[in-house]
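Interim report, section 4.2 (structural modelling).
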Amino acid sequence: MRNIWIFIEQKDRKIQPVGLELLSETKRLLKDDVSLTAILLTNTHDQKDIDLMTYCGANNIIIVEDERLKDYDTTYYSHAITNLMRDDRPDVFLIGSTLEGRDLAPRISARLNTGLTADATKLDFELTEERLKLFATRPALGGNLFATIICENTVPQMATIRPSIFAIEENKSRTSKVIIKPFEIKETSKVQILSKEKLAHKKVELNKAQVIIAGGRGVSNMFSTLKDLAYLVGGEVAASRAVVDANIEQKDRLVGQTGTTVHPKVYLASGISGAIQHISGMDKSELIIAVNTDPNALIFDVADVSIIADAKKVLPLVKEELKALRAYKTH
Amino acid sequence: MIHIVCLVKQVPDTTEIKIDKDTNTLIRAGVKSITNPNDLAGVEEALKLKDTMGAKVSVVTMGPLQAEGMLTELYARGVDACYLLSDRAFAGSDTWATSKILSTFLKTLDYDLIIAGYQAIDGDTAQVGPQVAEFLNIPQVTYLSEITSVTKTAITAKKRTESEIWTLQVDLPCLVTTLSDMNKPRYMNAFDIMHNTDKKVEIVTFNDLDLDINDIGLKGSPTKVSKTYVKQVEPKSAKQVMTEEDAAKLIAKLLYPYMEVNGDA
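Predicted structure of the assembly:
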């Protein structure tokens, strides 16, 4: 059976979501037609880690356990992986496109003399008797162009894949085989961690927010739910004129001609009719989602996703959905 | 005196690239070439070390002959030696093949510290730095925010992770990759322009290097572009009447990529 290896990143003993996202996506695309192996490098592990990888689709789990693998180190991590590939290389090797993954993957691809696609956002596979072929699609030239990259003559076909693109999907009836390996290396890393400090968390301002959860008259009694949503996605709450005039929100939350002009990645307009003065302050947003009960609301003219529904009922459900999804991210 | 080698790439200014809406193709004509911003920060970091502790600073680039103009400007900022690896045989190289060519040349230099930009704005791969380090069998530190000290045998540097800053000590020789916001590149100065007019860019071709032709160019590249397409401008969507549950699922899916892992709500 053809096989895919997936690198499972851990930070401070916590499995990071991207590895589970990649397991879930490859399982979705290829079902049981290929063998999925999760690779975890760590100083120690527990049953919860194994369960997570298993439920997300890993048929095999290889854990290399050693005190030197506690924190990421380019030399130790790359050798731990290429040691595993000495006898048998997988057809495909996928790594999350995190800062760690993008430090590690090129080092491995150079050592194994194989091709690596950077920061892919879409995966496709072609499975035949002879081989498993990976098509990794990535944005290029500042996002103006998309390119699908293949690696035809060498294995493993490698790619780093952007986090948070694919949803995590667990199935608790799945089982896996676990192999625990020691770490053998002669050389000592020439990189030494002297100290670590946490990055300070900065307060986001409305015009700097990536995600804005905005509410209008239709949800004027729901702003605590809006705030919960904004918190979950690391965004900010904004309001329409009607809400600010009613003293429900402060003026610094006002979007529009008389307030702030914003251009976030996502603008969720809930219960906002879309007066011109409001639209002029947010129509440059990358993705506009509008929820309104009135099918003739002007906001739908600028929205990328137009949903006719009662925002008052939808928002609490969105919060529940996100909290369920977040459970994966906090494992 | 230590020898610092900076890896630099000339790139199209991607912020100026526009899409022809009629043909759905990129308009490249008239787009100016610039020095890749992350690489320029690396050169500045090297020049700062030259100012403070004395160092020889060399710059290496691979690309068409037009990149000579960029290197001449770097001389005017105070760089000591510039090399342009240029040959038709290099064209079409992917990151593996590019790193092969660069590292083969770097082996002919006596370097202590190699500084490369974290990634180039036309490719965004961040792969050439680590691949060069692997081919040279030297340690690497990527995503540097600061070089705090340099001695004859080691450097101390700060590296960013998603949530922390790590202070690291790395033995020389090593390779580091830099970010454009770590410093503000200096202007060309009159003194260096005057004193460097006689400095020539050294052109290095395939024949000058101990390279296998099968390892480079389009043919030597393990990856191939199977197809490219221009980003489609999504049409504004039709209005959808949905149940509250379906609407919530759709919105949650669109917001999911931005979700933060800390805190409670």
